[in-house]
Specification:
The protein has 227 residues and is an all-alpha fold. The protein has 8 helices and 2 strands; from the N terminus they run ααββαααααα. α1 packs parallel to α2 and α1 packs parallel to α7. The termini are far apart.
Length: 227
């Protein structure tokens, strides 16, 4: 019914770190808002008011169509605590989809005390764990920092601006989650598209090719007969 990919996130302001926990959450949020808008349920089920890491489960609204229920299919993905597949689940749940789940696989859950700290999950949702590592690495080895986070440096993303980047992305996703196809590339005037395979022939060209092959074959047969 709907699909969302992390490579769409640059449109919403996230130009780096497209495979980390925070971006996976944003992709789940994008999927939820896109699907609900498609079903005209986006105004009824707005999802969590704030991405604060707290447990959130959407509830049916009286007199309105029920919340869209779906289930997480992890496939062959690892299901250890903190796995990114659960970031997508959390994003989709906060986005307004009804997905049965618990908090046991989110960062911030302690299996010994069986307590869940929402503020820990919030750090991951906004990429603050990445920001902390950036600060630590920059202080320990600036050359390694420049090498590992060259993409962030080029995009002008700092440890201090990561949270704001994701906050803005969440707002932009909610504002317009619909899929926007990329515009087709146009070649400069006079330049032709390179082909790596032979151009397809039309019917007349195919018939002419067959005729030429027949003529060539008949000439070979006639030459053998003369000999």
């Amino acid at each position: 019914m709907a699909a969302a990919y992390s490579h769409e996130l640059p449109r919403f302001g996230v130009k780096v770190g497209l495979t980390n926990y925070a971006s996976t959450y944003a992709t789940g949020l994008l999927l939820a808002r896109r699907l609900l808008k498609k079903l005209k349920l986006d105004t009824i089920y707005a999802g969590a008011k704030e991405a604060n890491g707290e447990e959130y489960n959407v509830e049916d609204v009286d007199g309105k169509p029920g919340a869209f229920q779906c289930f997480l299919d992890v496939g062959l993905a690892r299901t250890s605590t903190g796995a990114r597949v659960f970031a997508a689940l959390k994003g989709a749940a906060d986005g307004g989809l009804h997905i049965p789940h618990s908090v046991k696989r989110f960062p911030g859950y302690d299996k010994d005390s069986k307590e869940f700290k929402a503020d820990v999950l919030r750090k991951y949702i906004f990429g603050l764990h990445v920001a902390d590592y950036m600060k630590e690495l920059k202080g320990d080895d600036e050359e390694a920092y420049k090498k590992q986070f060259s993409g962030y440096i080029k995009a002008g993303v700092t440890a201090e601006s990561i949270e704001a980047m994701y906050k803005k992305a969440h707002a932009e996703i909610r504002k317009d989650p619909e899929f926007k196809p990329k515009p087709k590339k146009t070649l400069p005037e006079g330049k032709k598209q390179k082909r790596w395979t032979r151009a397809p022939l039309n019917r007349a060209q195919r018939n002419d090719r067959v005729r030429q092959k027949k003529e060539s074959f008949l000439k070979k047969v006639a030459a053998l007969a003369d000999n």
